[in-house]
Give the backbone structure.
Amino acid sequence: MKVFFGLLLIVNIAFAVFQWLMPYEQLFVEQKKVPAAEQLQMLTDANTQVVSEAEVVARVEAETDALEAAVARIEKEVEAERANLVTEDSSDKRVCYTIGPIKDKARAIEISGRYSGKQARTSLKSNLEKEYQGVMVFVAGHKNRADAVRTASKLAANGITDHIIVSNPERPNILSLGVFGLKRNADRLRARVEKLGFKVETESRYRERTIYWLYAEQSSEADVLQLLEATDNENGISQIPTRCLPT
């Protein structure tokens, strides 16, 4: 036991001497702490250039002014080019009119010669049209031709002698009493025949025929040609102003 306490005393004395010779800071060196995350760095501390909103606006305005100046310069150049161009007179220097309707081809050719002889350019055109003839008064419903003849005899006995028997696939054995250009004359005859006890009908009549039209054009710098005669006007032929055809 004495030996154990003697050794313990010697160890304590040795530790005390070692501590006295070696400072406490050197014996227990504090390890440097490692940060958990990298510390944020302010832009003002970093080597970074910061652009303010005012500077951005100033740059945009400067670029806009430069663009507007370029556009204005281009517009002036275009206007200058236009001023140097020679303007072409595109106005139509023609007067045009249509002459007709002309029912006879020989007459149409003769009228065309009048205008072409006065340095007018002419073109003759034709088309098939329905020409109004008038109102036909007739008695229908006959079974055969003999029946229509008997009706005609009865009318003749009452002073109505103008009649003709007309047949077609759709309406056979019609007794026509005439075609009237004026409707009132047709209505007058119809009323007269109806008083005699006959069933009378009326119908507008047309016929197809070739109608001619003359197209003419002349210079607007000359007086408009008026070469139709009185007989032309009496036959319904007129000179009608019209739009000129494309050249």
